[in-house]
Amino acid sequence: MAAYSVRPIAESDILSTQLLVEGGRIGVGAEEWRIFIRRIIEWRGATGLHDEVHVAVDLGGVIKGLVVSQAIQSLLYGRTLDAPVFLTASAIDEDGVIIALLEKLSERARAAGCRQTRIWSPGGQAWRRVAEKVEGAVSFEGLCVNVAV
Q1: What is the 3-state secondary structure (H, E, C) of the chain?
Q2: Alpha-carbon distance 112 to 81, whole Å?
Q3: Lower Cβ count inside 10 Å, N or C end of the chain?
Q4: How high is the pLDDT of residue 22?
Q5: Alpha-carbon span 85 to 126, nearest angstrom
Q6: Angle formed by the axes of helices 30-43 and 14-24, nearest 10°
Q7: Which of 91, 95, 83, 85 lies closest to 122, judged by CA?
């Protein structure tokens, strides 16, 4: 049995993920985060593949990480799954949380026909990309992962 399950965020997760987001210093306020998550939940499934937030949950039901992802078309990279927010909260098993979230991103990228996933470093333009629906990037700080087909 896996140590973490990864699932779409739920309304009941807003407060605990808000604490994780504040600790991650990504530049989003509490009210903006609540509005964003409620919009994600409301629109889920209505528009096909869209922005999504997934949480990694341990066996006790505690959220240990989260990732925000969106499929975009990049002039430089082609169809790409952007992950402008990728946060973990496990001092004991950070690698396990990272692996679980990366597996979800890979699954989502394959479903969207993406050739790669870009995981942005915290800060900089990462949250602005989510809030303002920015596509493409003049500069990029983070990690690119090719998607295995």
Answers
A1: CCCEEEEECCHHHHHHHHHHHHHHCCCCCHHHHHHHHHHHHHHCCCCCCCCEEEEEEECCCCEEEEEEEEEEEECCCEEEEEEEEEEECCCCCHHHHHHHHHHHHHHHHHHCCCCEEEEECCCCCHHHHHHCCCCCCCCCCEEEEECCC
A2: 8
A3: N
A4: 85
A5: 7
A6: 130
A7: 85
| pTM score, whole prediction | 0.86
pLDDT one-digit tens code per residue, 99-134: 999 999 999 999 989 988 988 877 656 666 565 655
Is pLDDT above 80 for 140? no
Is 146 a residue whose pLDDT tops 60? yes
Q: Amino acid letter at 103?
A: E
Dist. CA 125–CA 23, nearest whole Å: 17
- Residue for token digits 């995981």? 119
Which CATH class for the 4-146 domain?
alpha beta
What is the domain partition of the chain in residue ranges?
4-146
